[in-house]
């Protein structure tokens, strides 16, 4: 099965290939490439964080920081595209009689402008010395840390368990928060912790096999459903802002309020749908491979 360092490096190498391989399409504004690069970036950040003792911190921490910044830029580009499509789909399902004013035009122009701005920022990032240095660092084997020589089968599952305990903590915090903005934020933290646990488990699939894959699938389901919830939160904020702009221009805000209510209902449904996946993810039974 090899050493912990070998297993982590193999996982990192695959993600680096996906990230760097997406660069030409990123520069052309391809949304699928943005999504693929964003996922690869997140997987790299999780691996470098969860399995930090396997790596040399002085060499890897700056790489992780740069990946975090790149992830934000990719996220802005991806989210503007996805949000526009979701709002347009929502509007298409409405009775034309309930669509008052140039709602579709405002949505399209606002999200298109956000996407263009994000693409400009992404292009600037990809052509900067920072990205050149990041690509050069990622193209080389990561420097080994003090635990790199440990047996992968014995060491890596224990590190993955820390990521899952972080998910447990986030779930416990969210359970104590009353519904509202603070609860939305707490559930977003659960989503991020689930994503981290998922990717941590993916690394260990090379060692543990099917049990780690099943755990990753449980975390993925939590991530998906709470991602749906978070998307409604973001869209509601966009609709509030567009309604304010419409009001300033003397336009009706009726349709924005209607769409906001539909997003609220979708968010409530997503939160309810998350209860079972969260329970399944926080059970100990599927985690026996981590002990």
UniProtKB/TrEMBL annotation:
All residue ranges annotated as the CHAD domain in the record: 1-290
Q: Extract the Pfam families matched here.
A: CHAD
Per its record, how is this protein called by name? CHAD domain-containing protein
The record's listing under PANTHER family reads:
CHAD DOMAIN-CONTAINING PROTEIN, SLR1444 PROTEIN
Entry-linked InterPro entries: CHAD_dom (IPR007899), CHAD_dom_sf (IPR038186)
Upper taxonomic classification of the species? Bacteria, Bacillati, Actinomycetota, Actinomycetes, Micrococcales
Q: Where is the signal peptide?
A: none
Please, which domain of life does this record's source organism belong to? Bacteria
């Amino acid at each position: 099965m090899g050493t912990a360092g070998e297993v982590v490096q193999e996982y990192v190498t695959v993600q680096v290939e996906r990230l760097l391989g997406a660069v030409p399409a990123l520069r052309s504004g391809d949304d699928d490439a943005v999504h693929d690069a964003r996922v690869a970036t997140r997987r790299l950040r999780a691996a470098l964080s969860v399995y930090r003792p396997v790596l040399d911190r002085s060499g890897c921490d700056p790489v992780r920081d740069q990946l975090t910044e790149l992830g934000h830029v990719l996220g802005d580009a991806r989210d503007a595209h996805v949000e526009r499509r979701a709002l347009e789909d929502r509007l298409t399902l409405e009775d034309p009689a309930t669509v008052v004013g140039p709602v579709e035009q405002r949505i399209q122009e606002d999200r298109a402008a956000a996407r263009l701005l994000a693409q400009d920022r992404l292009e600037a990032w990809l052509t900067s010395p920072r990205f050149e240095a990041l690509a050069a660092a990622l193209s080389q084997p990561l420097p080994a840390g003090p635990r790199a020589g440990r047996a992968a089968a014995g060491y890596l599952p224990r590190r993955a368990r820390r990521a899952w305990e972080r998910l447990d903590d986030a779930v416990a915090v969210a359970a104590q928060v009353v519904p509202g903005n603070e609860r939305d934020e707490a559930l977003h933290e659960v989503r991020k912790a689930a994503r981290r646990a998922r990717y941590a488990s993916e690394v260990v699939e090379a060692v543990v096999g099917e049990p780690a894959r099943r755990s990753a699938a449980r975390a993925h389901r939590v991530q998906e459903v709470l991602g749906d919830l978070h998307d409604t939160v973001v869209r509601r904020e966009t609709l509030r802002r567009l309604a304010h702009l419409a009001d300033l221009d003397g336009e009706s805000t009726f349709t924005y309020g209607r769409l906001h209510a539909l997003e609220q209902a979708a968010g409530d449904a997503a939160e309810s749908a998350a209860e079972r996946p969260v329970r399944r993810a926080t059970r100990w039974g599927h985690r026996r491979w981590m002990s």
